[in-house]
Amino acid sequence: MSVSADGLSTASAQDLVRQTSDRLLKTVKAHQKELDDHPDRIYSIVENIVVPHFDFWRVAQLALGKYWRQATLEQRQRFTNEFRVLIVRTYSVALLKYSEQKVHYLPIRGSAEANDTIVRLEIQPGEGSPSILMNVHLYNKNGSWKIFNVAVDGVSLVTNYRADFASQIRNGGLDQLIEKLAEKNKKAGA
Questions:
Q1: Cα-Cα-Cα-Cα dihedral sign, residues 78, 21, 19, 8
Q2: Which of 43, 64, 67, 190 is most buried (most C-beta within 10 Å)?
Q3: What is the count of structural domains for the chain?
């Protein structure tokens, strides 16, 4: 176990991810019948259990890359809100498909001096399905661990969206991207 400068251990980051995942999967299992009938209710479960552990401002900043510095505060806020809804919706839909998964925690990555760490998980969706490797990137924000990126089988959430968003901004500007995200979220009923 390593410890950061302010006393946060990388093991506590793994504990946070483990406890959050366990609580989320138990809640989904406990409400499976209700979720089968009303799948949109998964959003509030994810909002209550997972979202508090994300730093969406940082996620949004990383996803916009150089365009973040060019954005106004109002654009940053609007983008962060719409991007958060998109991530929650996407994660929630995937969660419903894989709620019976088994999760194994691999050794964490991070040094004693680092203020960030990577919690590595191996997710086994079921018999005959290949394992999914997930890296949860966390950093120390004011004495607590916050998630700022997730990579699934080597594909980074932030990097994946950054390339798409950069292309959309070059073609139509940031305001148009925000409007498209808002429209997509509205159509999805989120």
A1: negative
A2: 64
A3: 1
Q: What is the pTM (predicted TM-score) of this model?
A: 0.85
Q: Which amino acid is at 138?
A: L
Asked if residue 127 belongs to a domain, the reply is yes
User: Pick from 130, 109, 121: which is nearest to 17 by CA?
Assistant: 121
Tell me the CA end-to-end span of the chain in Å, nearest whole number. 40
Greatest CA span in the chain, whole angstroms?
49
Angle value at C-alpha 117, between 27 and 52, nearest 5 degrees: 35
How do residues 111-135 score in pLDDT, each as one tens digit? 655 788 999 999 887 777 888 899 9
Residue entry with tokens 């949004």:
60
d(CA 184, CA 190): 9
Domain annotation covers residue 165: yes
Contacts of 54 (CB under 8 A, 6+ apart): 84, 87, 146, 147, 148
Considering only residues 99 and 112, tell me which one the structure prediction assigns the higher pLDDT.
99
Please state, rounded to an integer, the average pLDDT across all residues of the chain. Answer: 88
